[in-house]
Amino acid sequence: MIQYVVDGLVNGSIIALGAVGLSITYNVLRFANFAQGEILAIGAYMSMALIVLMGVGIGSIGPVSFGWPLLVSIAFSIVLTSVTVLAVDWMLFRVLRRRSASRITFIIAAFGLSLIIRNVITLVAGGDQMFLSFYIPKAIPVFGDFKVVPDDVVVLIITAICVVALHSFLTSTTVGKKMRAVAENPVLAMVNGINVKSVIRWSWVIGASLSAIAGTLHAHVTQLDPEMGFELILPMFAALIVGGVTNVYGAVLGGFLIGLTEAFAVSMDLSAYRGAIAFSIMIVVLILRPQGIMGEKERDD
Amino acid sequence: MVVPYSDISSGRELLKVSNLVAGYRRDLPIVIDVSMEVYEGEILTLLGPNGAGKSTLIKGICGLVEVMSGTVVFRGVDISDLETHQIIERRVAYVPQTQNVFAKLSVSHNLDLGAISNLEAYEERLENVYILFPDLWKFKDISAGKLSGGQRQMLALGRALMADPILLLIDEPSAGLSPKLRDQVFQQVVQIRDSGVTVIMVEQNARAALSVSDRGIILANGRLRRVQNAKELLEDPEIAEIYFGPGPTGRVS
């Protein structure tokens, strides 16, 4: 049982970090980014490319089956994924913003973008599954009968660091404060002298960085394939809705809840239905608390 | 056309708008060929019926709507092509009519955000805002969304003052306020002017607004119709008939 909980938390970590990106785009740029899953895929493939280029495998530290090479590749992936996302924003979403396109146009454009990215990945890396390493998870006893897979613990630690870093970024830095101001009221943010264009660029970078980390961790604990973004997007949206779209921490909570629910489904031998069960949770939350667990009701003042 | 400024204004030109055409859509200009001067230390009120382009004119000055042609020269520099944040950095402040506070954030956090682009002498300014609006000090830790309409208007003004503006643009400060609160807000606008800030405000309450203003401008259908001393406008029977409604205490549309 404990292993299912750990699996749920690990899977939840990846969904949570991805959902944070979704939440930031939703709150700052005001559209549902259907290409968010593909941003995780870009992050994973960038890491894969660097691992291949370095040619030293992913290393290892003690009982953990990855080491500095993977961490270095994540760092590079953060930079490359951010640059890619900024370029895409410049080519696509910036143009739509300048034309004051409707929200639905943004969503359709994002959906189209996701198809393009998925096919570019297939074109460049091929449609087959790829693996960062020949990692086989092996649980080691911690005390008594309690065993954990060391890599899972490291994934959870990395996620915790990301969430703490995100929190201090949003609350303590000037850019973070500006980002929250833009999220609440873009016009008022502008008349406070905030450069909204710069805040938008920062939002993409934060979202892309977390996605690069999440995508690479997902690739490490499972595998890479061009469809990975498509498979992750629905649980990420479910997480965002369960946690509350207006609250970035809600996305984290929602991610873990969806991850745990899916793991629970697997433990009941219902793994084929795990998506359906996650969505049932979402429907229940929508009925009981439409704004999500940590969300706030939309004001219209 | 321009009538001599009142005794309070110094007579030095702070802002000069020339042949301004502005609006939300290129094919639908709302402000048409407006030229006007604003003098240092005055309160200038923009009047006119709904849809006359009053709000769009002040939004054009601070870059919130597209300027299609014409110039806006502030302290000798053409600001009509600048982005809003660049205009704000030049110490122009703008108070929107609605959604003019960050409802989820506390009062003090709202004021902090007002100073985010200009942190110089922050403490001193914060103190001055709390002196001008004692209610804000009382409620500094509660979220702005919980304030009453009048308090919210004070926070919106206080937030704008935190950027230490030279020119303050206010969109309908009295909207939705009782006559008593309206007069209080207007008195605070006078105090702000007396502290050395030039004020342009858009108003529907023509009589009450003109009684605290130095000059008034009347717009209709996006065009400038009258520029006059506030006192003269108040005494003009034609203006009284259109904008003040019947009787000495008559309210405007």
Return the CATH class of the domain at 1-90 and 214-244 in chain B.
Alpha Beta
Number of strands of chain A: 2
Overall pLDDT level of chain B: 89
Could you name the ranges of chain A where pLDDT drops below 50 across 5 or more consecutive residues? none
Topology overview:
The complex is a heterodimer of chains A (301) and B (253).
Chain A: H1 2-29, H2 36-54, H3 68-98, H4 103-125, E1 140-143, E2 146-148, H5 150-172, H6 174-184, H7 186-191, H8 196-221, H9 228-243, H10 248-267, H11 274-288
Antiparallel strand pairs in A: 1-2
Helix pairs in contact in A: 1-5, 1-6, 1-8, 1-9, 1-10, 2-3, 2-4, 2-8, 2-9, 3-8, 5-6, 5-8, 6-8, 9-10, 9-11, 10-11
Chain B: E1 13-23, E2 31-39, E3 43-47, H1 54-61, E4 66-74, E5 77-78, H2 84-89, E6 92-95, H3 107-114, H4 122-132, H5 134-138, H6 149-161, E7 167-171, H7 179-194, E8 198-202, H8 206-212, E9 215-220, E10 223-229, H9 230-235, H10 237-244
Parallel strand pairs in B: 3-8, 3-9, 6-7, 7-8
Antiparallel strand pairs in B: 1-2, 1-4, 4-5, 9-10
Commentary on this structure:
The complex is a heterodimer of chains A (301) and B (253). Chain A has one domain (2-226). Chain A is built from eleven helices and two strands. Chain A has helices spanning 2-29, 36-54, 68-98, 103-125, 150-172, 174-184, 186-191, 196-221, 228-243, 248-267, 274-288; strands at 140-143, 146-148. In chain A, strand 1 and strand 2 form a beta hairpin. In chain A, helix 1 (2-29) packs parallel to helix 5 (150-172), helix 2 (36-54) runs parallel beside helix 4 (103-125) and helix 2 packs across helix 8 (196-221). The longest helix of chain A has 31 residues, at 68-98. Chain B is of the alpha/beta class. Chain B has a domain at 1-90 and 214-244: P-loop containing nucleotide triphosphate hydrolases (Rossmann fold), CATH 3.40.50.300. In chain B, 35% of the residues lie in helices and 25% in strands. Chain B is built from ten helices and ten strands. In chain B, strand 4 and strand 5 (77-78) form a beta hairpin. In chain B, helix 3 (107-114) runs parallel beside helix 6. The two termini of chain B are 27 Å apart. Classes of the chains: A mainly alpha (301), B alpha/beta (253).
